[in-house]
TrEMBL record, chain B:
It holds the Pfam family Phosphodiest. Gene3D superfamilies: Alkaline Phosphatase, subunit A (3.40.720.10). It comes from marine sediment metagenome. SUPFAM superfamilies: Alkaline phosphatase-like (SSF53649). This is Uncharacterized protein.
Length: 283, 660
């Protein structure tokens, strides 16, 4: 079921970005930020107490004014500050409901956006590591596994088996552009994983394919999961993080937050404030 | 083996504190000058190309493009510097002066107040103002790196006339002298430890665990559960009171059967097969939460089984985030890094010490130098393509490094000659000459009638068969006295010297100093007639000394500094510059102030070709597409030649004369 949901939700994003795949990723980023801002405004408009927010904001403004007017009176100043705090708490309580309503769709959106903005596709000639992670109880030294040759890739090393990590690694070198299927034969069973090589500036990249499991599938919806009884826990292809470049300046990671996420939140919030007047939304 | 050579002397307590605080940040990387010059000058600096070998292979038709260029214009030997050492020779070329004018006399100078060797080309000083908070030491000002060469570089003069120049990796220009021209430093640029290059080698083989090797560290490791855990040491952490070495930990996962490993550290993981080089890997040594030092290095998996052997190259300064000044403007190295990825920044890229210490074999050394050469050729194409005005100077070091390390394969008389290896690697030197011939073809395509094309080398090469212990000769000749004669050969840095009874000593590769009163800490010879007579006496005796084994004179000429140098820095020069004969060079012990028992010994090292000899023994080359009028052109003649081509007034300080 989860996979069906992921497919449908993924298709929505495929559709949104379809026309923008060959353009600068900033175009797609601005588009999705506008859509997110509109979604946030819509949710705020219909799930929050708009009148209450308006009233509370006015109260806060009034008490701020009181604070300036009666700054010579300590008792009035303290009282005004107390009121500002009280109405701020009420403002937060009015905002909680829309926030709670938005949090789940926002997480699902972020998961999808990570596929589009989180990773850089491989380029022909570039090397990467392919990791097959096995389920508990399976030893990489005992398992019968092979990686089938592909026109898109050269397999540069024999399998590297790391017993303590239950991992089998290969080094691959990308050869041809496109989305390629890597095929593994594990104990006679066939498994595949998609790998992206130098596509358009904005392309969907799924680094991890996982085994069927609700949380796993929720977080890694890029590809259909392996069956639940598979000896493979996950297959991962190492991609480089995508660089968000603004007029030659490479936006850095911010306290562990990737550049695309910093840009996305900043743009969505700014656009939300810009558009709130047009849609007459109190936030 | 316990020698230290010129490559190692640069390990002179450079501080991480200064590493962190240097450099400016300008982003423009355009060549400075705006003038469209009617004439252009393209110079290829091919370090160490020897006129005899060049002529031989030209005659044999193996170097058609060198031949073509010689036919178009001229080909002559180029008089080199006294002594013919790269920093001295290139400084002659850069300034148009001899060492008396630019103050670079040897790879190694000495501090007469301490009888201590110092690196001649640059000086690093730590920050003096610090604040200590607990175990933390916070600098209040930056350290400094100074280029010790005096005199104006020719590209600085061109800058005054608005003539653009790009100077790629010219030796003796670290740190790059201030200029708005596009320059990147070459020989003399340290690794991030501040040394000429310290490799790391991890092995389970006990017999390889030599304690004291120059230019590298050997680490014993154990393979436990198909895994190796080890540390890669970085610069000293000057932010900590006890100045510990910084380090990063890394893990190596080994396949139980296949000769393949995965190496992981920081955010890197990569797979290597046996006998395979990695690409450049970025390393970040964190000093304190807000300060770190970036470097780049390559991994080479030498062997997986039966013994695990992993080599890590010296950690080069990251050109994309340089912690020391390596280019002008700073953005030039960043621009190159963006276009080509990380690249060798250490002065001489190939690791001669790893080859000397059998950590890399001949083939592995060549693979490493091929990587460096490939990088440099790619960047050459880039610079050549955008060269449209002014001057482009482009330098290649592989010619020098390969002749140093592979001469033993072309000289059957060399003590390190091995017929089996000679059969395999005997063509190495010829091949690099051929590679340079192909380079000429690429360059000549760009050369039009308005371009003066010059191909030059700073010196030639000769075999280094016998090593001359100059300090031992001084001792045996009565000019140097030991405190404990029975300790001879055991102490470095003249620790066993009785200075009050010593008249002369040698530091560096060609330098001999009189222990002069008032100059040296414990001088014993009076300035004036006493010193004059002593200098001439020693020079004469050196020239007349014969090798008892071969009957040859190891010293062809002993030059007296004040006879051969002119300029304001003659007083800083060594008193005698020793010009060695073919086959001879100073020993590995002499530059370190060590006094072995024998005056002469066979050189059994892989470092088998050399040029720190008499300038007449190892002249360089000049080929150009113009006729040369000068009868015996010299390195310092090229500087005024360049200025004359651009119609620039030649400063009076320049000693050379235009060759056209």
């Amino acid at each position: 079921m989860m996979w069906i949901f992921n497919s449908v939700f993924g298709k929505i994003f495929d559709f949104i970005f379809f026309l923008f795949r060959s353009m600068n990723p900033w175009i797609g980023m601005i588009l999705i930020s506008v859509l997110t801002a509109l979604l946030m405004l819509f949710v705020f408009r219909f799930t929050s107490n708009q009148e209450g927010i308006k009233r509370v904001k006015n109260k806060i403004k009034a008490h701020l004014l009181e604070l300036r007017l009666f700054k010579d009176s300590m008792s009035l100043s303290f009282k005004a500050q107390g009121n500002i705090l009280r109405y701020n708490l009420r403002y937060i309580s009015y905002s909680t409901k829309p926030m709670l309503v938005m949090i789940i769709p926002l997480i699902l959106i972020l998961i999808q956006l990570n596929f589009w903005f989180g990773y850089e596709a491989l380029t022909p000639g570039q090397e990467t590591i392919l990791k097959v992670k096995l389920e508990e109880g399976h030893n990489p030294l005992d398992i019968d596994i092979s990686l089938e040759p592909s026109s898109g890739f050269d397999i540069q090393t024999p399998p590297l088996r790391i017993e303590e990590e239950r991992e089998i690694n290969w080094r691959l070198q990308a050869r041809e552009k496109g989305v390629h299927d890597l095929t593994f034969i594990v104990n006679g069973q066939k498994f595949t994983k998609k790998v992206s090589v130098a596509q358009r500036p904005l392309s969907k990249i799924s680094p991890l394919k996982v085994k069927r499991n609700f949380i796993n599938e929720l977080i890694n919806p890029g590809e259909s999961p392996f069956p639940g009884d598979s000896p493979i826990k996950a297959i991962e292809v190492k991609y480089q993080s995508k660089d968000m470049n603004l007029f030659g300046w490479s936006i850095p990671w911010l306290f562990g937050i990737p550049p695309w996420l910093v840009v996305y939140f900043a743009l969505s919030i700014i656009l939300g404030f810009v558009l709130k007047g047009i849609f007459k939304v109190q936030i | 083996m316990n020698h230290i050579d010129r490559r190692e002397f640069i390990k002179l307590s450079l501080a991480a504190g200064s590493l962190l605080t240097l450099g400016s940040s300008d982003l423009a990387t355009k060549a400075f000058g705006k003038r469209e010059t009617p004439q252009k000058v393209l110079i290829l600096g091919l370090d160490g190309i020897d006129p005899r070998l060049l002529q031989l292979w030209m005659k044999e038709g193996k170097l058609p493009n060198f031949q073509r260029l010689a036919r178009q214009g001229d080909f002559m030997p180029l008089r080199t510097s006294i002594p013919p050492q790269s920093p001295v020779a290139w400084s002659n070329f850069i300034t148009g002066m001899n060492p008396g004018g630019h103050a670079i006399f040897d790879f190694i100078h000495r501090d007469p107040s301490r009888y201590f060797p110092v690196f001649s080309a640059s000086e690093t000083t730590e920050t003096k103002k610090t604040v200590q908070i607990g175990n933390l030491v916070l600098p209040l000002s930056g350290g400094e790196v100074n280029n010790m060469r005096q005199g104006k570089a020719f590209w600085q003069i061109l800058e005054d006339y608005d003539i653009p120049a790009t100077i790629f990796k010219i030796p003796a220009n670290y740190p790059p002298v201030p200029t708005k021209q596009r320059t990147i430093s070459g020989m003399g640029t340290p690794d991030i430890l501040g040394s000429y290059g310290i490799f790391n080698y991890y092995t389970t083989e006990a017999k390889e665990l030599k304690e004291n090797i120059g230019g590298g560290r050997i680490h014993p490791v154990n393979v436990i559960g198909n895994r190796v855990e080890a540390k890669l040491l970085g610069p000293v952490n000057a932010f900590k009171k006890d100045r510990p070495e910084s380090a990063i930990e890394f893990k190596v996962f080994i396949d139980p059967v296949n000769p393949v490993v995965k190496i992981s550290f920081q955010d890197h993981e990569f797979i290597l097969k046996e006998r395979e080089w990695s690409s450049w890997k970025r390393i970040n040594f964190r000093m304190i939460p807000t300060q770190s030092v970036n470097g780049i290095c390559m991994f080479y998996l030498k062997q997986v089984r039966p013994n695990f052997k992993l080599y890590i190259s010296p950690i080069n300064i990251d050109p994309g985030r340089a912690v020391l000044p390596i280019s002008t403007p700073k953005g030039y190295s960043e621009e190159l890094e963006k276009r080509f990825g990380p690249f060798f920044t250490k002065g001489l890229p190939a690791d001669t010490k790893a080859l000397d210490n059998d950590v890399l074999d001949d083939g592995e050394f060549l693979e490493q130098d091929d990587l460096a050469l490939g990088e440099r050729l790619d960047m050459f194409d880039y610079e050549l393509a955008r060269f449209s005005s002014g001057l482009l100077f482009y330098y290649f070091s592989s010619t020098d490094q390969r002749q140093h390390m592979f001469w033993r394969h072309i000289d059957k008389e060399h003590p390190a000659y091995d017929p089996t290896l000679a059969k395999k690697y005997g063509n190495t030197i010829e091949n690099i000459y051929k590679e340079m011939d192909k380079l000429l073809a690429r360059a000549m395509e760009k050369v039009d009638k308005d371009t003066v094309f010059i191909v030059m080398s700073d010196h030639g090469f000769s075999s280094f068969r016998r090593a001359f212990n100059l300090n031992t000769w001084l001792k045996e000749s009565g000019y140097h006295t030991l405190i404990n004669p029975w300790k001879q050969g055991r102490e470095d840095l003249f620790m066993n010297t009785n200075w009050s009874r010593t008249k002369a000593y040698s530091f560096g590769l060609n330098s001999l100093y009189i222990n002069q009163k008032g100059r040296e800490a414990e001088g014993a010879v009076n300035l004036g007639s006493e010193k004059e007579a002593l200098v001439r006496e020693i020079a004469s005796k050196l020239e007349n000394f014969h090798d008892p084994k071969t009957g040859e004179r190891p010293v062809l000429r002993a030059y007296i500094a004040k006879d051969v140098y002119q300029g304001p820095y003659v007083d800083l020069a060594p008193d005698i510059i020793v010009g060695y004969n073919h086959g001879y060079r100073t020993s590995w012990a002499t530059p370190l102030g060590r006094i072995p028992k024998e005056i002469l010994e066979d050189n059994t090292e892989k470092w088998s070709g050399d040029h720190c000899m008499d300038p007449e023994v190892v002249p360089g080359i000049i080929l150009t597409n113009r006729k040369i009028k000068a009868k015996a052109p010299a390195l310092h003649d090229l500087t005024p030649t360049i200025l004359k081509i651009f119609g620039v007034e030649i400063p009076k300080k320049i000693k050379g004369k235009p060759i056209f």
